[in-house]
UniProtKB/TrEMBL annotation:
<feature type="domain" description="Transposase MuDR plant">
    <location>
        <begin position="49"/>
        <end position="105"/>
    </location>
</feature>
<dbReference type="InterPro" id="IPR004332">
    <property type="entry name" value="Transposase_MuDR"/>
</dbReference>
<protein>
    <recommendedName>
        <fullName>Transposase MuDR plant domain-containing protein</fullName>
    </recommendedName>
</protein>
<dbReference type="Pfam" id="PF03108">
    <property type="entry name" value="DBD_Tnp_Mut"/>
</dbReference>
Length: 212
């Protein structure tokens, strides 16, 4: 399993059924002439600029983009409306900033793309120095490669890094949890693989005689 999949909240969003039949039924004449800006996660996530009409693969990707935007610019984003057809992103401070995205093709149940339909991109508020988007899961995922190379990365080291790169202070428990999650993700595949085999072969299991 790819380590990144451990961090997905809702994998059902990724179930995509290609269906040319449904699509040709619901495709209208107008849509053929319009080219919408398409969000590309790998290309756009690090320097995200939301655009009116922008298309996301699904609601999960749209929310992920909002969270990353919040982390980068130090805004805490809420989703007061949040289902597979409609997502409204607002700023926690209720300053007026919002993005409303809904299904690009609402009549097609298999086509999950979400599009920005209305928005107010200006904030009338200050930035914050704590941010609930920076969860231990997010840290584990974001710094996975560092944890891979340095499984003993110290708690103060993690805190210092987050403070330097995100201008945010996290508590030691969050840093510790992040390391636990990352190491679990890194070692998880191996442990699982050998876990199945160890039923018949405990030769390498140092705890085999230690039954309490
Ligand atoms: Zn705001």
């Amino acid at each position: 399993m790819d380590a990144s999949t451990l961090f997905e909240n809702d994998e059902s969003d990724f179930k995509y059924v290609a269906s040319n039949e449904l699509f040709s039924e619901s495709a209208s004449e107008n849509e053929a002439h319009v080219k919408y800006p398409e969000f590309n996660f790998a290309r756009d996530i690090n320097d995200l600029i939301f655009k009116m009409g922008m298309v996301f693969a699904n609601n999960h990707e749209f929310k992920e983009a909002c969270r990353e935007y919040g982390i980068k610019h130090r805004y805490q984003i809420h989703f007061p409306t949040n289902d597979k057809k409609r997502v409204k992103a607002t700023h926690f401070k209720k300053c007026g900033w919002y993005i409303w995205a809904s299904k690009l093709n609402p009549k097609d149940p298999t086509y999950m793309s979400m599009q920005i339909k209305s928005r107010k991109f200006e904030h009338a508020c200050g930035k914050v120095f704590t941010n609930f988007h920076i969860t231990s899961k997010w840290l584990a995922s974001h710094y996975l490669e560092i944890f891979r190379h340095d499984p003993d990365w110290s708690i103060p080291g993690i805190i210092t890094r987050v403070k330097a790169y995100h201008t945010l202070t996290i508590n030691p428990i969050k840093a510790w949890r992040a390391r636990e999650l990352a190491l679990k993700a890194i070692n998880g595949d191996e442990a699982e693989q050998y876990g199945f085999k160890s039923d018949t072969s405990n030769a390498n299991n140092s705890n085999s005689g230690d039954i309490t």
